[in-house]
Amino acid sequence: MQNQTSIDTAHRPNILLITADQWRGDCLSAAGHPCVKTPQIDALAREGTLFRRHYAGAAPCSPARATLYTGLYQMNHRVCRNGSPLDARFDNLALAARRAGFDPTLFGYTDTAPDPRGMDANDPHLTTYEGVLPGFTARQLLPEHERQWLSWLRSRGHAHAVNRDIHIPVGAQAGEISAAAPAYSRDETQTAFLAGEFIRWLGEQHGPWFAHVSFLRPHPPFSVPEPFNRMYKPDDGPAFARAANHEAEQATHPYLAFAMPHSDRGSFIHGAEGSLSAWSSADFAAIRAIYYGMISEVDTQLGRILQALKDAGAWDDTFIVFTSDHAEMAGDHWTLGKGGFFDGSYHIPLIIRDPANGPAGGVVDDFTSAADIFPTLCQRLGIEAKNGLDGRSLMPFVKRESAEWRDAAFWEFDFRDIVQGEAERHFGLRSNECNLAVIRDARFKYVHFTALPSLLFNLRDDPMELNNVAADPAYAAIRLEYAEKLLSLRARHLDQTLAYTELTEKGPVTRRP
């Protein structure tokens, strides 16, 4: 495996990979958030390793998860948007675990669009991007339509749980931002349903197992039952990172001027219509308070899972990874959701707990990537990926060992529109020109657009990313330095699957670093 350290074959533990969709990396009390309460995750961090500078590789869901599952940057896996097929030639963590003798079992979803080549044109799997990553056995699917959860609610007496209108708070109108609770209780959320299905499955297991629990929350729509709906007030939390108003924010870059007015309110509040740009500062504050409550709701259900592991006698034999696919802007820069280039979309949590390394917690401030999860699991399970990887194993950090490491985070975002071509028409660009790449260290953040102006932020003086200094002559040398760093990074990470192999008179020779 590329960039792999020594393989650990002494003991193959159970593997539990937990993702909570759209969870910001700063929204952990263990990470010092001023108001968000996450006692269950904090307890896990005390027994594991907390990675404080962990970043998604892409956005939105399908590209982000492709990096998480394959260990590849978007420049190599080429899942550009939701609906972009994942090339069948790539290995992934489920296929690798299956080679190691596990039956990787899914609870939730993976947002994987299948490779259409070799499939019949009428195959219904080609009508959605919410497919299942190859290698997984789906024990309990729960895609975004939530039908499985809705039918469960109906079995519990909620006859009106027939569609996603169930998320509209009681007494509120469709599209209204309301802190009122929906009709279902804290024990009947999608998160509670999925946690219960995992716990039931856990009671059936004998011997090592591999499970992926993929929670939809705190992904919108923003709605959560008591007591989480009123756990936080709109004025709780840090100051928003944003310009004076919507117009000032949009004026900072052509991409923002295009993307912000096109962001649909209905993607965040069920039943809402129109552009996000119509929401006020107070609206964003109210939504963020609900988002914080959704995080605490997921944290509570994670506590059920962790306790179930202990009750089943599996705690000391289970390797746990908790993370997200991407983050949530949560009102920063006058927007919600994910995408673009701001840290708020890409800084995500990561905690790894390995029972083989004792109970003492550790904190890592090095820059880590979602691409590192697959190689980490490979090393822990003593297996190899079948192709080159962009990520590196995090086991040296988990084991408290020293490691030479990257000094910057890297991510990509592609805003092409294959079906409608809206971005292409707006900018007068080809689809393969509608993309950006980011390199970000502790000092500066450089954003390179293929065919639009670049950006440069001095993060030490401007941590909120409000002042683009790319055109400032005083920063010309720094802009060039970071452009060259980005170019070198991309050159190093071109697909290396066969590049480390050479045919000789004695046959193929492979030498990977």
UniProtKB/TrEMBL annotation:
The keyword Hydrolase applies. SUPFAM superfamilies: Alkaline phosphatase-like. GO terms for cellular component: cytoplasm. InterPro entries: Alkaline_phosphatase_core_sf, Sulfatase_N. Keywords: Hydrolase, Metal-binding. The keyword Metal-binding applies. Residues 13-383 form the Sulfatase N-terminal domain. One of its GO terms (molecular function) is metal ion binding. This is Alkaline phosphatase family protein. It comes from Rhizobium lentis.
